[in-house]
Amino acid sequence: MLNRLAYRYHQSLERHFPEQRLFLKSDTETRFIRLRPATQIMALVGGTLALAWTIVATALIMMDSIGAGSAREQSVRQQALYEERLNALSTDRDLRAEEAVRAQERFNIALAQVSDMQERLLASEERRQELETGIEAVQDTLRTTIKERDGARAEAERMTLALSAQSGGATELGRASDTLATLEFLTGALGEAALERNRSLSEAAAAREEARRVADAKQAMQLRNDAIFAKLEEALTVSVEPLDRMFREVGMSPEALIDSVREGYSGQGGPLTPITFSTSGAAPAPEELRANAILGGLDRLNMYRIAAGSLPLAMPVRGNFRMTSSFGYRNDPMGRGTRMHNGTDLAGTRGAPIYASGDGVVIFAGWKGDFGWHVQIRHSNGLVSSYSHMAQVRVETGQRVSRGDQIGDMGSSGRSTGTHLHYEVQLNGTPVNPMTFIKAAKNVF
């Protein structure tokens, strides 16, 4: 029964694939190779599979080349935008700081002018009060003198009448003449005092007018200062809020970050010092408070800039690469079930450069078991970035690196199924998604 089925199967195959013979002739003999139907079918299937594989591989290579070119151009554009944004922020910060300093200088000059005018006004007011007091005294004296003059005139008339009738009138007449001379002197002094009072009143009026002009100028300057302060505050808000939001998105406290930067800051210049004035124990002026708030914002922006340079915010690979595995649970590539993947796998060509994603110090550089050739960089604020499965390590333990420095070459060392980079970021010893940092930075820069 089985032989009959085999015979029928063989006959069916021969109808479509008849037996072929391949003759091989030499000088002395002739041989042939018999190609049975089953052999022909196997050759046809093998050729078809090889052709299909060639077509699929060619399509994948072309798609990878097109995608890699777009990713490279996008990375270059993002890097240029990042640098341009940093330069613009730095230039804008310097301009705002200069405007704040110039505004404060103008405000100080205005305060000095107002203080001088107030002193002159107070001096004029004191002189006016002294003159009014002197005029009142002169007026009292004048009234008393007028009364005495009237009494003296009456006495002089009486004495004149008496002298015409009696002897010795010449002496009394001389006394009456002295009294009249005294009255004339007092009258002249009173006129001069009245003129001095009028001059003092005119000076006081001029001082009040000058004080009014100074007050108007002060108000105009305050309006200009308010406009400058408003622009500075708006610029700071636009510059600081995205950075503040970026650090919160990656799970870091901005206040703790700034405190950490200030503790370890060793550059020249240091934080911006608040503006202080001698207030003799009085409360600070509103302008001083606003200026100090702006300086505080500029200092916060500067601290953010320093912190951003040390955080792993940059992509560790460039050019032609693709993401083959993301952060989170996945099926183990070695067939060992579902496991937590603590980083991101970025596949590329063997020997492709691998760059530091932020400023820091290399704390490990060498072979590390399943991770193969491995580099760890410690950044500030409890952050550590790791780079695994490299073909070659180009840094040493203890070496300080900057963002963008090449630290190794891409490979497939250790427990790896192909050429790629396994990139991890840890925050205080806990693995976090490294793409969170890269995406947060792209939303700002």
Give your account of this protein's structure:
It contains six helices and 14 strands. The longest helix has 129 residues, at 37-165. The protein has helices spanning 2-16, 37-165, 169-249, 254-264, 286-310, 434-442, and strands at residues 20-25, 30-35, 321-325, 328-331, 338-341, 344-348, 353-355, 360-367, 373-378, 383-393, 400-401, 406-410, 420-427, 430-432. With 445 residues, the protein is of the alpha+beta class. Helix 2 packs antiparallel against helix 3, helix 2 (37-165) runs antiparallel to helix 5 and helix 3 packs parallel to helix 5 (286-310). The strands form three sheets. Strands 3, 6, 7, 8, 9, 10, 11, 12, 13 and 14 form a ten-stranded antiparallel β-sheet that branches. The chain folds into three domains: 2-47, no CATH class; 92-276 and 284-310; 343-445, Glucose Permease (Domain IIA), CATH 2.70.70. The model is unreliable at 268-273 (pLDDT under 50). The two termini are 79 Å apart.
The gross shape turns out to be rod-shaped
Count, helices: 6
Number of distinct beta strands: 14
Span between termini = 79 Å
Percent in strands: 15-25%
Number of domains in the coordinates?
Answer: 3
Contiguous low-pLDDT stretches (5 residues minimum) are: 268-273
Query: For the report, how would you describe the main beta sheet?
Result: 10 strands, antiparallel
**What percent of the residues sit in helical stretches (DSSP H or I)?**
55-70%
Rg result: 50 Å
Mean pLDDT level:
77
